[in-house]
Structures are given as C-alpha cells and as structure tokens.
Amino acid sequence: MTRIVLADDHELIRKGIRLQIQGEDTLEIVGETGSLSDLDHLLEELSPDLLILDISMDSRWSGLEFLETHRDQLENIRVLILSASENISIVRRSMELGAKGFLPKSDTSESLIDAIRVVAKGILYLAPSISERLLYTQVPPETGSTAPEDLLSRREISVFSLLGKGKTSREIAKILKIRPSTVSTHIEHIKVKMETISVSELQKKAFIWVQDEGQTRLLR
To answer: Considering only 45-49, 143-147, 167-171, which range has the smallest mean pLDDT?
Structure first.
C-alpha cells in the first residue's frame, strides 16, 4: 500500500484527487492539507511514502521553497509536483530539488494515477507535454559564461533589454513588430537560459544588465 499525503490549497482539487484514488486498492491518502505551513508537521506525524505537492500554495510559501527548505524531511518521501504551469524553469528546478515527478493540472485523471505509481517506485515521471518541451527547448552549450550576450540569441537579447527598461510584453511586441504570443515564447526561452523561475526575477536581472551595459558604454 502506498501511503499518500496531499497538499493543495484548493478544496475542489483535493476532493477530485481523493475521488480518483479511492478506487485504487494499492493507494491511500492518509492525510491532506491546504497550507504549506502545516505540511511539515503532517509529514512528521504520518511518515507517508509519497507527497503530492501543489507547486503554488499560500501567500508566503511555494512548493519550490518547501522542497528547498525541507530536503532532510523529504529524503525518504517521493514527491510528485502538481502545477497549473508548464514552465520549464520550474520543472528543472523541481527536479534539482528532489521531486520525482511533475504533472500539469490540465492532464487526465489516468495520468495522475500513472504518475503516482511511477513516482512511488522511485522512477522519474514527466508528463508527455513536459518531456517534449524539455527535449526541444534550446539551451546553449556549456560555455562557463552566464552573461546574457553569451547565452541569448539576438532577438532574445532585444526582448531581454526591453524587459530591463520596464517594457511590458505588449509594448515589446509593438516595438519589435512581433506578436505578443511570440514575445511570451521568447521570455519562456530566456527564463530557461537565464535559470530564472518567475518573470519578476527575470525583469530584475534584465534591469541590472541594462544598467551595467549603460555604464560600460559610458566608459568606452
């Protein structure tokens, strides 16, 4: 029997998962919570085999933060991440922090059961849509450099620079004469290459880079 703890801040999501698992003889939800602040106590009390963890919970916490700050507690617990986002940076970071599986919430109930069974065995599980994106995401070869000009394409540099100047995706699209959806795609690729999780984090990096570039030009 695989003993499961479920952590998701949406009651409807938890109820749906409970209903799906109830029909499985070898799976059992032994505890659940809608708050990450209670999760460590729940894990300590129940010692489950597997944790189903929503990547985005509470105003102060996130699933990634929990993975990072509770590595010792999660050492013997398999973790399956649920996410409304398919951001590849988040997928990569989740795996780096020890998660064994990543499943978008838009996937099917059958996929959830498959993911639980695979992760429970200690085998890595990635939804097909995630695997495909990881395969085709273009990450430049290791050069030792973390400078944007060495990591990004010319178009990506343009987008990155405009982000650093405080432009929105819509404004960037207008300036570069491309579609907003294309800008969003560029931003996703830049986030992967710059190893950032959120757009706000990327904007901070872009702002610093733009300021540094300006100072460099003044010194030339």
So the answer is: 143-147
**159 class by beta-carbon count within 10 Å (0-12 exposed, 13-18 middle, 19+ buried):** buried
* Cα–Cα distance for residue pair 132/154, rounded to 1 Å: 25
Q: Cα angle vertex 183, ends 181, 185, to 5°?
A: 70
Both tokens of residue 1?
């029997």
- List the one residue out of 106, 9, 11 whose CA is nearest residue 60: 9
- Class of domain 148-219 as given by CATH: mainly alpha
- Going from N- to C-terminal start, the domains of the chain cover 2-135, 148-219
For residue 58, give the amino acid letter: D
Phi then psi dihedrals of residue 104, to 5 deg: -65, 145
Q: Is the pLDDT of residue 2 over 60?
A: yes
Task: Name the fold adopted by 2-135.
Answer: Rossmann fold (3.40.50)
For residue 189, the model assigns a pLDDT of 81
- Scored b (16 or more CB within 10 A) or e, 112-131 reads bbbbbbbbbeeeebbbeebe
Pair of tokens at residue 11: 């009651």
pLDDT of res. 136: 58
Contacts of 101 (CB under 8 A, 6+ apart): 78, 79, 80, 81, 115, 118, 119, 124, 125, 126
Q: Rounded to whole angstroms, what are the CA distances from 47 to 33, 85, 173, 218, 219? A: 14, 28, 50, 59, 60
